[in-house]
Design a protein that fits this description.
By secondary structure, this protein is of the alpha/beta class. An eight-stranded mixed beta sheet has the order 1-2-3-4-5-6-9-11. A three-stranded antiparallel beta sheet has the order 8-7-10, with helices on one face. A hairpin with a 2-residue loop joins strand 7 and strand 8. Helix 2 packs parallel to helix 3. The protein starts with 9 loop residues before the first strand and ends with a strand. 42% of the residues are buried.
C-alpha cells in the first residue's frame, strides 16, 4: 500500500522527472486525500485508505507559507524551475483556487520571475469557470487524460462522479484552444481478474484521436515510477513509450517521455 502524503503546504524543492526542480504546493488537506478520482496508481494510496478529515488550508495560510519559502530560497540564491500545485489530491477542488493562483503568480514575479507556475490536475473541475480561467493564467496547466475510452478510464482513474464520461472531459479540454499540456500514464496489469491495459492498439487509437481534437501545445507520457496501491500494475517498457511518442510527434505535437 502506498503511503506518501504531503503534510506541509509547501514541500521540496524536489527533482521532477517532467518539470525539473519543482517546489511543490499542497492545497489539499494535510492528513489525507481529497480527490474526484481514485487512481489505482496514486502514490498517496486509494481514497478509502487515506480519507482526509482536516480542512483545506486557508488562502492566506498558503500565501504566507509560499512567501516564506520563496524568500528563504532567494536568500540562499536557490530558485525553482517551477512552482507546482499537486499534493494530496485534486488542487482545483480548493474553493479559493483562483485566488491562490493569483497570489502565486504575484509571489513568483517577486521572488523568482524565471520560474513557471504549473498545476497538475485530473481535468474534472475545468467545467467550473473560475477554475478554467485560473488554469488559463497558469504558465503550465497540465491536465490528465489517461484514456479516451470510458471502460479503461473507469478501470484506471475510478471517477467519483457516476456521470463521468471521457467525451465530457475531452470537450472541456478543447476549450483551452491548445493552451494546455496533456499528461498520460501508460500501464498494464490486472485487478479482480480483469486485465487493465491502456497500451493496446484500440486504446492508443482512441487516445490519439482525442489528442488531435484537443490540440495541446505539448503531451507528456510516462509510466509507473513509485509504489502503487494496486500491486499487480506494471511499468510499460521504454521502447513502447517511445513508439507511442513517435505517433504523437508524427501527428505534429511536441512530446516528452519519462520512463
Amino acid at each position: 500500500m502506498a503511503t506518501i502524503l504531503f503534510h506541509d503546504i509547501v514541500y521540496g524543492p524536489v527533482r521532477s522527472r517532467r518539470l525539473g526542480i519543482s517546489l511543490g504546493v499542497n492545497i489539499s488537506p494535510s492528513d489525507g486525500k481529497r480527490c474526484t478520482f481514485n487512481c489505482i496508481y496514486c502514490e498517496c494510496g486509494l481514497n478509502e485508505e487515506r480519507p482526509a478529515t482536516a480542512k483545506v488550508p486557508r488562502r492566506e495560510e498558503i500565501c504566507e507559507a509560499l512567501n516564506a519559502k520563496l524568500s528563504q530560497m532567494a536568500s540562499e540564491n536557490i530558485f525553482p524551475d517551477v512552482i507546482t500545485f499537486s499534493g494530496n489530491g485534486e488542487p482545483t477542488l480548493h474553493p479559493a483556487f483562483a485566488g491562490i493562483i493569483d497570489d502565486t503568480l504575484a509571489l513568483r514575479d517577486r521572488w523568482c520571475p524565471q520560474a513557471k507556475v504549473a498545476v497538475l490536475s485530473n481535468s474534472t473541475m475545468i467545467w467550473k469557470e473560475s477554475v478554467f480561467q485560473a488554469l488559463c493564467r497558469a504558465d503550465e496547466n497540465i491536465m490528465k487524460l489517461d484514456s479516451a475510452t470510458d471502460t479503461c478510464m473507469w478501470q484506471i482513474d475510478q471517477p467519483e462522479s457516476a456521470d463521468f464520461t471521457c467525451e465530457q472531459v475531452i470537450r472541456q479540454l478543447c476549450r483551452f484552444g491548445g493552451k494546455v499540456i496533456i499528461q498520460t500514464i501508460f500501464l498494464r496489469g490486472e485487478r479482480d481478474g480483469l486485465a487493465i491495459d491502456n497500451t493496446v492498439e484500440a486504446e492508443i487509437d482512441a487516445w490519439m484521436d482525442a489528442i488531435k481534437k484537443i490540440n495541446p501545445r505539448k503531451v507528456m507520457i510516462y509510466t509507473i515510477d513509485r509504489e502503487t496501491p494496486i500491486k499487480s500494475l506494471q511499468k510499460v517498457p521504454p521502447d513502447e513509450l517511445y513508439a507511442i511518442a513517435a505517433r504523437v510527434r508524427a501527428a505534429g505535437f511536441e512530446v516528452s517521455v519519462s520512463t
